[in-house]
Specification:
Antirepressor_Ant_N; three-stranded antiparallel β-sheet; Antirepressor protein ant N-terminal domain-containing protein; 3 domains
């Protein structure tokens, strides 16, 4: 599991966000309050007024399922019961009272069992456990092979269901990177290519502002190696040694290498830049 990555635990059909922080499971409070029908701002103020809860509450920078970082106000799991039973169910709105009572009865147990590998679905027979373990392994292998986004989501949903049935914590889908053709290359070549293409992406980022792709067709990458190395040095962006690049670039499979010293009618041509440029050519598939 990646550091501070959200793990969702299903409670009454709602995904409660949790995260392992400093070796302890924590619970995202805003989402939990909203799922119970409680006003988050009112509960946040209640936590801040309680000396014990306030001393353990924290804001954690988490990695959401879309891979982006967000801040989440959390309580440690072992403080959740204290917060839950501080809610007077007789004073909440009638339409959410049953839900609040259900969470007070079950929320901590489900979360505790989930994070301590006991699950929340009752005891499995040995035969059932073996069947689920085999199914989980097959789904994991399928997820690691698949590249189609829709299919990956479908496989992941099944994998999460089986994992929850067994009581395993489930990382977000972003933790399972789709396969890359370059994974088949040797470690040095793979590392060289990864550093090179990351450097190109960094240089073309809006914050840096270079335009390096000379090709006019979408999905095709045309790079002049001398130009890339020159602007990388000027910008302080590290690149592999030229000899390593000359060896590695023709082996690239993602993006797929097409040719070296290919003359391209540059999309970046200006009065100050040549119309035709010799480039390494790659195609995204």
């Amino acid at each position: 599991m990646n550091r501070n990555e959200i793990v969702y635990v299903n409670i009454h059909g709602n995904p409660v966000p949790t995260v392992l922080h400093n070796g302890k499971p924590h619970v995202g409070m805003k989402a939990l309050c909203e799922q119970m029908g409680l006003d988050w701002e009112g509960q946040r103020q209640r936590v801040s007024r309680d000396e014990t809860l306030n001393s353990t509450a924290c804001v954690i920078k988490v990695v959401a399922t879309d891979g982006k970082s967000r801040e989440m106000v959390c309580l440690p799991l072992d403080m959740i019961n204290g917060w839950l039973f501080g809610i007077d169910a007789s004073r909440v709105k009638e339409d959410i009272r049953a839900r609040v009572l259900a969470y007070q009865r079950e929320c901590y147990v489900v979360l505790y069992n989930y994070w301590h590998g006991k699950g929340s679905y009752g005891t499995l027979t040995p035969a059932d456990e073996i069947r689920y373990l085999n199914q989980r392994l097959s789904l994991l292998q399928a997820l690691q092979r698949s590249r189609d986004a829709v299919m990956r989501q479908e496989i992941y949903d099944q994998y999460r269901h089986v994992s929850e049935r067994l009581g395993f914590a489930v990382p977000a889908l972003s933790a399972f990177q789709p396969p890359d053709d370059n994974d088949l290359l040797d470690d040095l070549t793979r590392a060289t290519l990864a550093q090179f293409f990351q450097a190109v992406a960094t240089l073309e980022d809006a914050a840096v502002g270079y335009h390096l792709n000379h090709h006019r067709e979408v999905g095709v990458l045309a790079l002049n190696l001398n130009e890339v190395m020159r602007v990388a040095e000027a910008s302080g962006v590290p690149l592999p040694h030229r000899s390593a690049l000359l060896r590695a670039l023709p082996q690239s499979r993602a993006p797929r290498f097409i040719g070296a010293s290919v003359t391209v009618n540059s999309a970046l041509a200006t009065p100050d830049k040549p119309r035709y440029v010799r480039c390494y050519l790659f195609k995204f598939t």
